[in-house]
Amino acid sequence: MAGEYKRIYDESINNPEAFWKRAAEEIDWYKEPTKILDASNKPFYRWFVDGEMNTCYNAVDRHVETGRADQLALIYDSPVTGKKETYTYGELLSSVSKFAGALSSLGVKKGDRVVIYMPMIPQAAIAMLACARLGAIHSVVFGGFAAHELAVRIDDAKPKVIVSASCGIEVKKVIKYKPLLDKAIELSSNKPEKTIIFQRDEAEAEMLEGRDLDWNEITGKSQPAECVPVKSTDPLYILYTSGTTGMPKGVVRDNGGHAVALKWSMKNVYDVNPGDVYWAASDVGWVVGHSYIVYAPLLQGCTTILYEGKPVRTPDAGAFWRVISEYGVKALFTAPTAFRAIKKEDPEGKLLGDYDLSGFEYLYLAGERLDPDTYEWATDLLKIPVIDHWWQTETGWAIVANCMGIERQEVKAGSPTKPAPGYQVEILDNQGQNLPAGEEGIVTIKLPLPPGTLTTIWRNDKKFEESYTDMFKGYYFTGDGGYIDEDGYVYIMGRVDDVINVAGHRLSTGGMEEVIATHPDVAECAVLGVADSFKGQLPVGFVVLKDGVNRDNDEIASELVGMIRNEIGAVASFKKAIVVERLPKTRSGKILRGTIRNIADGKDYKIPSTIDDPDTLKEIEEHLKSEGYAKRD
Ligand code: COA
Ligand code: AMP
Question: Among 101, 126, 304, 574, which one is least packed by beta carbons within 10 Å?
């Protein structure tokens, strides 16, 4: 209906309590909330404070009780192993309650943490839901992170139990998880009491007597566990995300606000109804996987797909079309980089002709900027709405979107459209002044954030304030730069901090610098995200060697590449370190990162007036040119 978006959006901002109270009626509560928004401890807003519920009950049990027991809840499709499995809601309930029983037999109870380090197998989702069932707090760690990254998260979350699998599979490569897990536990000062390992056929993990338990054995012996009522504000999960340093931030999500917002988003943002097949081609280790592989589709009574494969090479660039046609997918959500991968291998989209995509209605993209080329290509090929939307781990659901279930807005390529209900997006300058339409500045959201967004940083309220709310009083700092045009369309132009986005994966250049700085030959370094036509950005390291180091530069560079792979993980895609004599700096010693990035990307750049020695810029430009960067169109 014309004007519907504006009407709903305005209500969400002018009368948020009435708006979200209505949305909360879609959730089953043990105790219905009477207090909708608690603003007594700003900037820590709390939603549905006196409500009690259970997220697993809402995602699984209630569908069984209301006639969906035989409907498919989860489809596992794994081209890398050749396996396919399905779980009806009834079967999912049985698996989840048994695994919850297994955790419970190890003493896991409400408030305890469980780290989940798993590949894309159904057991990952089962473990998450089992934690939610008990009121335990899960912290899923992406399988592409190496032992050190896992150890950092174990030390912060202090889990009672870790759930893992013997291996993951990357196209044809079998990645043994157990040695990584063992190393991480060895590195961490907080040792979990037990681990539960799911043994996969592709690699058998060696078990440590007394600590490691076999998933099937312990689940086979356990009694199913019932749902434990939790407070709306009790944490459901911690998800660590890259900040500006090597210490990731433990984003805390509550139970009640999360369930209300995600359930609401399925119809209103994605136009997806109970019974529809919804596929988020991401990984359970990222926020997209948490929100849109596991929780939201199940809260909505959809069938969700857990796909263990890639858009290409498993076996070809028709992989996504195969899954969409085989299961009747209505909406696919993935990152633009996946579509760039398909476009690269099958530019004319010939493989699409092999499949029936008549049930496919929407393609949703997020996780990084949707470049207009990819948008046009996907739109021409699929002839369905291709919807960009912008959000982040912290918010858990879309901040800016073209809300398909409310009212379709005209698309402007390069913009994820307008703020989703609940989010008051404003562009501020460095002094916190509002900028006029069209002017680029810092993208902020006026507090309070809507339900489902982060409530704090795990056991670190101070860090929450420092990272997000201290900069501009009354606002949440998103870390992104951008502008809003005169029609209210938001444009996100990229991060204003040291976070980069590589193939839709969020990484910290500061974290990479911390690793490189430990190399004995390195005096100082800077890691920057340089534009890449396939992965969006790629990290490039610039290193200055210590005086007197007289070794082959290529050898040092390849040692640095190896260090990042071992310490952070292959997912960092750190393939390039360049040895330079000096780094361009301001007179106060700050590295001119933005200027170096502009040079590398072949963009125009100004020589900053604060520069210490302008020759350093010319030197770095020469280095970059000799490495194939700094090309102008
Ligand atoms: N476990 C272990 N290793 C992993 C991993 C995991 N879960 N995920 C990625 N890696 C490894 C890859 O194998 C690769 O290793 P390599 O350097 O030995 O080749 C490296 O990490 C980089 O991975 P990635 O950047 O994903 O590159 P890729 O070439 O393997 O795949 C895409 C590129 C575009 C196909 C893939 O990134 C993709 O499908 N992305 C879109 C969907 C998505 O996951 N988005 C995330 C948020 S929505
Ligand atoms: P993550 O927390 O991993 O989801 O990454 C969030 C960051 O990815 C955001 O802060 C943005 O920088 C970027 N991002 C996500 N979606 C988009 C989008 N649609 N357009 C532009 N940038 C995006």
Answer: 101
